[in-house]
Structures are given as structure tokens and as C-alpha cells.
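Continuing the series of single-chain predictions for the mutant panel. This is the parent chain; the variants come on the following pages.
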Amino acid sequence: MNNSVNSLAEEASRSQWDAWFAEFAEAWRTSEVFEKHPALKAGFSELFENNPALRTNVFACQMLRIHPASGAIARWKSPMTGDVSWLTSAVEDETRRWFVGRLARDAEFVPDALVEPMVKTAVCLGDPSVNKWFIEPCVNYVGRERVAGLVVSMADSADLAQIVGAIDALYWIDRPLMRKLEVEKKTILLEALLAGTSKYLRFRILISLPLDDEIYPDSHKPLVKIAREIRDRELYLRTGSQ
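Parent structure:
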């Protein structure tokens, strides 16, 4: 009996959150900003056609100041098991995660059960221009020390993207710790840079990797010289083309 009641309650919770997200997405889609700026609307037309539910974007959320329903914010502040389940799934989802980020910012609160999923999402996103959407509310609510600890633990990984994502997330938490982590992971990053990786990770490594000879073992100093040449050439090309 209890299992049946719990199942019904969780289903009702999922339906309610789906409705709140749909309302949020529709407000984004029909914002008056698009009526005032037809070129902006045209730029998003393909997005609307391909995904009616909308792949809500962090920059659009900031620009249009779209806010979740007051009921969603109230539930966020006192979530039940079914709420946590939906929100955990949402923060890991490419489409719905920005809705969760806006909830955290508007509520000025992060439920304890959502802290770790939000930090993981920030690390997976990597790019500091967007990961702060999830890092800053957690820092404001549970403090820098706990959030930094979660991020550093995620850097203890064989996944290069996760290591770089953790370094980037620390930008918003503790920059001296970020520099320390860069030094600790220097040989992994150096070897990955020269072995070949995606353009995005290559760029992130180039701008964050310390390349001072004295911090590397003798075995890696020839690689450091090559990496400096790559950095100087590629970053010059980037800045020179802007």
C-alpha cells in the first residue's frame, strides 16, 4: 500500500515539474524581446522548429530574465523525494538544466540533495562562462570549502575533460586552489596537449597549463618547450584573427 501511495506521489510530482518547466520554456519562447528584435527571433527560429520544448539556454535566461513559477520556487526550497528525483534528472539534462539553474538563483537557496548534482553539472560543462550558473548558488548556500572539495574530488579522474572542467569550475570558487590543481595535473595536461585532443580542450589546456621548466621533471622539459611553442603560435593566431 505504502509503495503504491509513494509511486502515485512521485508521478504527481514529475507531472507538476514537467508543467512548471513547460511554462518556463513557453515564456522564453514567446518573450516580448523577440517581438522587439525580429533578427533575434529569426536566429532562434530553427531552435524552435527542431525542439518545441526548447533547449533553454543560459544566456537567453539571463538576457530575457525569464523566471520559474512561484510554486516551483517554493517546492525547490522544501523538496520531497519525488521532487529531488525530477530535479536531479533535470540538472543532468542538456535542455532542462538551465531551468534548475534559474531556480537556484531565484530562490537564493540550494537543497542539500542537489548540491552535488549541480557541482557535477558545472564540472561537466567546463566553460567558466556558463558553469558559474551552477557553482555560484552552491557556494553562496553551502560555502566555498564544501564546493571546492567536491570539485577537487572530481579532478581525481582519468577523464581529461573532467580534469579540465574541475580546474575551470574552481575559477569561481578559489583561484589559488585552481592554480595548485593546474600544477598537480600538469604532466597529464601536458601529455594530453601533445598527444592530441579536441579543439576546445586543447584551447582550455593552452590557456591554463603552467609552462615553467622548473616545475617539471627533466623527462618532460623537452615537451614543455614544444608546448610553449604551440601556445605562442596558437594563441597569437587566435588574438591576431580577432
